[in-house]
Amino acid sequence: MSLKSNDNNSHKKEPTSFAEGVGRMLAMIMLLLRALAIGVICYFLYSFVEPLLH
Fold it and tell me: Could you tell me the keywords of this UniProt record (predicted)?
């Protein structure tokens, strides 16, 4: 019986709690910041290496 009730809970599209929603939002923000940091690092590496190639 407990498996059946867990199945019903897993079909919810909303987060089960406010903390879970905040955690998902923070995880997405961290992924975006990581992508931005990688882009900035690549830009600075390119700006330092590109003059050496000419």
Answer: Membrane, Transmembrane, Transmembrane helix
